[in-house]
TrEMBL record:
Keywords: Kinase, Transferase. GO terms for molecular function: kinase activity. Belongs to the FGGY kinase family. It comes from the Bacteria. This is Carbohydrate kinase. InterPro entries: ATPase_NBD, FGGY_C, FGGY_Carb_Kinase, FGGY_N. Signal peptide: none annotated. The keyword Kinase applies. The keyword Disulfide bond does not apply. Residues 16-241 form the Carbohydrate kinase FGGY N-terminal domain. Residues 277-475 form the Carbohydrate kinase FGGY C-terminal domain. It comes from Secundilactobacillus kimchicus JCM 15530. CDD domains: ASKHA_NBD_FGGY_BaXK-like. One of its GO terms (biological process) is carbohydrate metabolic process.
Length: 534
């Protein structure tokens, strides 16, 4: 679509806005009806560890949303010379899980508790046993039940609780709803009814610790919506909250708010049965859309859904790229010390490409990229560390390869459970995330780690917010009886640009050798947690 047509589409409001609140960045992406990115804006933020709780202040949530929107709107003015007044559809997505409880007056009762917290072990264990269904520590219901077990005073005042995406959507539209994918990270979904599992809700309500409260779980959970449905409209107050300049009008169709896992599936065209995708960022997760239930309950495998309700086996890791980013930042400081100013893509590209000269097993080096705790390896807290022996081959290529292997190590351990115990394996994973901006390097490491071909599409850097904008277009333009999978296959990804990298025999063997050493060395991480205070 040429610039003149795009300008007309913007003026007429024939556009869709996706906003995703990720772990390190909030991004707003404006998309035209032919699925092309028109403009974007972002805001960088970091979670804060306050009283041993990982959180983001509410004020920063809105500052980030407004800043990213303002930058997107300015991008439109710079490119097309017009303000953004009408938007056909808007969708909000965010980090899944976590805990945001509110009282009758809409007050947040405790600071937002993010997915990153490993503080609900007792609740997660008790509920997993009660439901015979895996409840990870980061799930919203685990946070609620742990607050009950802790006898936290705020629990008696809960009128409603939701996720970050659900909260933002509520403030923009007045609707207390969630897309089913995000809802499936709050409480288990029944695959047949495609709603919260009624039996499990009753089991929860009947627990002695829960019966003391006047609320019932069913009434405080958000209403479930499906991809393609309307989830309300942008109110005048919501428009002012999103765009304090006053340019934006209310009335936009609001798509069901989703989690970053759901938008990752959409942006990689991986919502159809037996497809798989991977998102790699601050955290990482892989998703496989199932055609039949798993045989067993696994504590390292989450059962969630696609944005249209199909069951998905999810391997989620709390840590991925943060430690790599920290080391790259150190190299950037050194570059500046010697008078060299490098753009981020050039710096990452040079370091990542050096890893291709490394040994297949990374030369006997070890790294644990645990900025926070890691459920898959049973680590309650994070202590990023690097280790080597006197005989290790300590050079730059091996150093960088070690950190790439380490970023994907928990994801590999989880996927080995799916492949070896449940015999679930896709023909290919479609991957997205900043780690894949450097062509083929991270892709090859991941292919070798999972022993599966990895495809990266041309939109790999856009990811979730673009996927959320696509869900907005689906809600706005959905044809009668059209499925999300058909919409993506036949319209959005009719002519995809992609690159697929296959695993190599040497790479698979080398990565497996690294993982064996990684598992043996986990006691180093445990010792660090026990010996080094936060």
């Amino acid at each position: 679509m040429d610039a003149s047509r795009i300008k007309n589409e913007i003026v007429s409001g024939n556009i869709s806005l996706g906003i995703e609140l990720g772990s390190t960045r909030i991004k707003a992406v404006l998309v035209s009806d032919d699925f092309q990115t028109v403009a974007s804006g972002d805001f960088t933020w970091e979670n804060e560890l306050v009283n041993n709780i990982w959180t983001y202040p509410v004020a920063k949530i809105w500052k980030g949303i407004q800043t990213s929107y303002q930058k997107m709107a300015q991008d439109v003015k710079d490119q097309y010379g017009v303000p953004v007044k009408k938007i056909g559809a808007i969708g909000i997505s965010a980090m899944m899980h976590g805990y945001m409880p509110f009282d009758d007056d809409g007050n947040l009762l405790v600071p937002f508790r993010t997915w990153r917290n490993n503080i609900t072990e007792q609740a997660a264990d008790d509920l997993t046993e009660l439901f015979d269904f895996n409840i990870p520590q980061r799930w919203s219901i685990a946070h609620l039940y742990q607050a009950i077990l802790n006898q936290e005073d705020h629990v008696k005042d809960i009128s409603f609780f939701t996720t970050l995406a659900g909260y933002v959507h509520w403030k923009l539209s007045g609707e207390k709803v969630l897309g089913i994918g995000d809802a499936s990270g709050m409480f288990p979904i029944n695959d047949e009814t495609r709603s919260y599992d009624s039996k499990m809700i009753d089991q929860f309500n009947q627990q002695p610790a829960v019966r003391q409260y006047i609320w019932s779980l069913r009434k405080i959970l958000p209403e479930i919506k499906f991809a393609g449905e309307s989830a309300g409209t942008l109110t005048a107050e919501g428009a002012k909250l999103l765009d304090p300049s006053g340019d934006l009008e209310g009335g936009s169709l609001m798509a069901p708010p989703e989690g970053d896992a759901g938008t990752g599936m959409v942006s990689t065209d991986a919502v159809r049965v037996r497809t798989g995708n991977i998102s790699a960022g601050t955290s990482a997760f892989s998703m496989v859309v199932l055609d039949e239930p798993m045989d067993n309950v696994h504590r390292d495998i989450d059962m969630v859904t696609t944005p249209d309700g199909a069951p998905v086996a999810m391997v989620h890791t709390n840590n991925c790229s943060s430690d790599i980013n920290a080391w790259v930042g150190l190299f950037n400081e050194f570059a500046k010390e010697i008078g060299v100013d490098l753009k981020p893509n050039d710096l990452y590209g040079a370091l990542f490409k050096s890893s291709e000269r490394g040994d297949n097993d990374a030369g006997g080096l070890l790294s644990y990229a645990y900025l926070s705790g890691e459920n898959i390896t049973k680590m309650p807290e994070g202590r990023p560390l690097f280790a080597r022996t006197p005989n290790s081959k300590f050079n730059l290529p091996n150093f960088i390869k070690t950190h790439l292997y380490s970023a994907f190590a928990p994801l590999k351990i989880g996927n080995d459970i799916l492949a070896n115990d449940e015999h679930i394996k896709t023909d290919v994973f479609i991957a997205q995330g900043g780690l894949f901006k450097t062509p083929k390097v991270g892709q090859q490491v991941l292919a070798d780690a999972l022993n599966t071909p990895i495809t990266v599409m041309s939109n790999a850097g856009e990811g979730g917010p673009w996927g959320m904008a696509i869900l907005g277009l689906f809600a706005k333009n959905k044809a009668e009886n059209e499925t999300l999978a058909d919409f993506l296959d036949q319209k959005v990804f009719a002519n995809p640009e992609s690159v697929t990298v296959a695993p190599t025999k040497e790479g698979v063997a080398g990565c497996n050798k690294f993982i064996e050493a990684y598992k043996k060395g986990l006691n180093i991480e445990t010792a660090a947690i026990n010996s080094i205070d936060l």
